[in-house]
From TrEMBL:
It comes from the Bacteria. SUPFAM superfamilies: LigT-like. Belongs to the 2H phosphoesterase superfamily. ThpR family. It comes from Sphingomonas sanguinis. It catalyses: a 3'-end 2',3'-cyclophospho-ribonucleotide-RNA + H2O = a 3'-end 2'-phospho-ribonucleotide-RNA + H(+). NCBIfam families: 2_5_ligase. This is RNA 2',3'-cyclic phosphodiesterase.
Amino acid sequence: MVRLFVALRPPPAIRDLLSDAMNGVPQARWQDDDQLHLTLRFIGEVDRPVAEDIAAALGQVHAPAPLVRVTGVGTFDRRGRVDTLWAGVTPHDALAHLHRKVDQACVRAGLAPESRAYLPHITLARLPGSAGHAPEIEGWRAVHAGLSSESFTMAHMVLYQSHLGHGGASYEPVMRWPLETGG
């Protein structure tokens, strides 16, 4: 079994901008540079033949490379406890279009369609259970509420394999496909 997801990788200057916001919440497990990505579709664990079918279907996706910008920060919570800190990415239309194409490719490869609403974001940190209501989280949100970038293009779609370990997940790029750019 392999654990997979499809994502876009922000350029180095954007990853540097995001890294500058990764502080101020003591118990947070901040993402390292190799972990910064914008998920298009989480796939989960699949057998290797299914993974090969998914890769083949993703290779048939043709879509424009989204022109986006970082806009603000937010949190996700689970059962009333904040467990994720993230940076927002807009506009949503181009990303939602690409998400739909990736989801359709995954369905063609035999997966169930994505059932969750799609909210484009880049995860910056994961929080342990004891940090879910810390006042530092609200302070972090206030300090970084205006986080923004110039527009940038994410020109490649990447299929990643996720390896879970004691220190969290590490991500290995498996395949990479260029998206259509206007040049």
